[in-house]
Amino acid sequence: MLSTIVIPRRIWLLIGYAAAAAVLFSAPLYLSDFRLNLLAKCLAFAIVALGLDLLWGYTGILSLGHGVFFGLGAYAMAMHLKLEAGGSRLPDFMDWMGLTKLPWFWEPFKSFAFAAVMGIAIPACLALLLGFFTFRNRIRGVYFTILTQALVIITVTLFVGQQAYTGGTNGLTGYTKLFGYSLKSDTGKTMVYLATVIALIAAFLLCRFLVKSRFGKVLRAIRDGENRTRFLGYDPAMYQMAVFAISAGLAGLAGMLFVLHVGIISPTMMAIVPSIEMVLLVAIGGRGTLIGAVIGAVIMTQAKSELSASYPDFWLFFLGALFIVVTVFLPGGIVGLIRQLRQALARRRSSDDINLNSVMPKGNGIV
Q1: Could you give the 3-state DSSP secondary structure of residue 111?
Q2: Element (H or E) spanning 264, and its range?
Q3: What is the per-residue DSSP string for 237-256?
Q4: Within 10 A of 290 (CB to CB), how many other CB atoms are there?
């Protein structure tokens, strides 16, 4: 009798991840420039979704202010690109506002390495500072969410008001080169896209390592019962501050990559609506599942692009309806639906096996 070979689920996961990575790395070979740019933006938002999933899905902390962290990372990279594009000249908007000298805090951003580090460090430090004053004082739930929205309003107002230093409502644009290479050339687009893929894979591996470690177990314990976790001897505030900073740092990384693809960043990308859309990525894909955050980001961003192009006057209604349907009927998101279908299929197979065994003839005892 031939025995059935059972492949462990872990092997299937590795095969799936490898296939997904192969598809992403080979995308420049079969996608047009427009589709490749759109996919790159999807992957950048997937990095934001991974960080939000760590914070909301695994720790139970809902932030509606991640647009700020995303924007800070984008501005850090845009400042470097703007200085590189202008050479020794002042950025154009500074000329218009009457400045005669480059502000001191712009000077270090002439270095790409400094800009890249600050694009992650500034959002992480801001989140750490906010987390220190909120989590230490046990500000939780809706109150924390309101504070993150207040952070959005303050930051957007500051960036719009300081037009001489930030470009105001127009933001930072007018840059096309990185390391002397054109970002609009085929080679430049491909290299930036591949950098985004590598960054996404690195972010996914980091998040997966964290959730599988003791750190991740404590995060889930805080989500399910913060007081019980505290009574066990852990300090929930320290873990909440740490995961908030990591999540903000990932959002900053995504912002840096995003600005390389679109060539502009303005305060509108830091507003409340983009922050809410970032949360929707996680909700639609599946909260508490890293792969769900990535799937949600890709599907949501693609749907937003297609709907806005086909129905420019009504696409927001379609997007809102999609969110309502998923929230009401699929609280576990797309990944949750897949799990339910898989469990139902497993139960059906088990039931069929039982029925088959019950109707099979038994031996009569004659040898």
Answers
A1: coil
A2: strand 264-265
A3: HHHHHHHHHHHHHHHHHHHH
A4: 23
Q: What is the pLDDT of residues 137-155, one digit of tens each?
A: 988 888 999 999 999 999 9
As a whole number of angstroms, the distance between CA 226 and CA 235 comes to: 9
DSSP annotation of 55 reads I
How confident is the model over 219-268, as pLDDT tens digits? 999 999 888 999 988 999 999 999 999 999 999 999 999 999 998 899 99
Region label for 90, one of left (φ > 0), alpha (ψ between -120 and 50) or beta (otherwise): beta
Amino acid occupying residue 110:
K
C-alpha 203/C-alpha 51 separation (Å) is 8
Please give the Cα distance from 171 to 162 (Å, whole number): 11
Structure tokens at 280: 């929707």
Closest CA to 280 of 300, 250, 258: 300
Q: Which of 296, 204, 189 is nearest to 250 (CA)?
A: 204
CA distances from 53 to 107, 235, 308, 311, 341 (A): 35, 21, 26, 30, 23
**Helical packing angle, 236-262 and 214-224, nearest 10°:** 110
- List 182's β-bridge partners, or say none: 177
Q: How far apart are CA 146 and CA 130, in angstroms?
A: 13
Helical (H) or strand (E) element with 263: none
Cα dist. 159→118, 163, 266, 349 in Å?
A: 17, 7, 9, 59
Written as six digits, the tokens of 326 are 């998923």
